[in-house]
Design a protein that fits this description.
Elements: H1 2-24, H2 29-32, H3 47-50, E1 62-70, E2 80-90, E3 94-104, E4 136-147, E5 152-164, E6 170-185, E7 193-206, E8 216-228, E9 232-245, E10 251-262, E11 266-274, E12 278-288, E13 291-300, E14 309-317
Antiparallel strand pairs: 1-2, 1-14, 2-3, 3-4, 4-5, 5-6, 6-7, 7-8, 8-9, 9-10, 10-11, 11-12, 12-13, 13-14
């Protein structure tokens, strides 16, 4: 009985802390550097995680990218997140996006020191050696975007999530996002654009018998792109939203970020986010020919599981 109770407690803790968190982490190094302001962000390879309708207003027909984020400090020390994503635009009215993520946690300890490993009354692990594996979460996303008129596009994203807690318990779910994106040219300056976005994320259901709910979220946002001079431009974005469920993760969401571009080659970014945790972000970007490299850094309080985390990404655009 003691073993069963310990296993249940461990499973709940691991599922509640890790499984839900990994799916809410922004894998895009670019928008992560802008305070995670995503819903009205201009198109990039990770638009499926920002707003899957944005590629229909992008200049490139194809973008692909890979991002890696290791947790070197904080509550998730020893974890890492790897992401591959991209989109293909077909003509002016259709787009397809795809993405995949893997979040790996530290391997469970066999010495019994970890609070996540059940032990008997003598302090010895209660599981066989072969039953310990590295906890991990995976996701696969696909999205279809449709430009309904010159200024407005819609996108539907389907997401499969899988989580294994390292003790033999596995969970799976299907989620869906519905997004709207609009781009409006502004007359006060040539090349100036106002982007508007709205999105409902993680509406879905658990596939396994054990609950595996994700945080249902609604967000709206706006971004303003303003060129000035022949070599400079500024992109500023604000998001507002609310996380409705699950109960323990309800919160108001506010994100603000800026991106300064020099000759469309070098990008300087910064932002701030208010969520369950508050944190500030900074980052850099480099564009050369068809190659893009981005890096971001999260700074936050001691209790934030993402504090002092950096991520780097590389991609191609055509």
């Amino acid at each position: 009985m003691k073993k069963i109770i310990l296993t249940l407690v461990i499973s709940i803790v691991a599922l509640g802390v890790s499984a839900q968190d990994f799916a809410t982490i922004n894998p895009d190094a670019r928008t992560a550097a802008m305070g995670d302001a995503t819903v009205a962000a201009t198109a990039d390879a990770y638009s499926i995680y920002n707003n899957a309708a944005a590629p229909l207003f992008g200049y490139q027909s194809v973008q692909i990218g890979y991002t890696y984020a290791p947790w070197v400090q904080s509550l998730y020390k020893g974890s890492d997140l790897m992401t591959v994503a991209g989109y293909l635009k077909l003509g002016q009215r259709h787009s397809f996006s795809i993405g995949g993520r893997m979040f790996r946690e530290p391997k469970l300890s066999m010495d019994g020191d970890s609070s996540f490993v059940p032990t008997d009354e003598n302090g010895n692990p209660n599981y066989k050696v072969g039953e310990f594996t590295r906890p991990n979460g995976k996701s696969l996303e696909v999205a279809y975007g449709l430009k309904v008129c010159e200024e407005v596009a819609l996108a539907l994203t389907a997401r499969y999530l899988h989580y294994a807690n390292g003790l033999g318990d596995k969970y799976a779910a299907m989620n869906f996002d519905l997004a709207l994106y609009s781009q409006l040219p502004l007359s006060f300056r040539e090349g100036a654009m106002l982007n508007l976005g709205a999105q409902v994320s993680n509406a879905g259901f658990s596939i396994t018998k054990s609950g595996f709910t994700q945080p249902l979220t609604a967000k709206v946002g706006a971004s303003l792109l303003t060129p000035f001079g022949d070599a400079h431009s500024l992109l500023a974005e604000v998001d507002l939203g609310y996380r409705f469920a699950p109960v323990g993760m309800k919160s108001l969401i506010a994100n603000v970020g800026v991106e300064y571009s020099l000759m469309q080659l070098l990008k300087f970014r910064a932002g701030y986010a208010h969520n369950i945790y508050d944190y500030a972000t900074v980052g850099l970007g480099l564009r050369f020919m068809h190659v893009q490299v981005d890096a971001s850094y999260w700074a936050s309080g001691k209790m934030c599981p993402w504090r002092n985390t950096f991520r780097v990404g590389v991609g191609l655009e055509f």
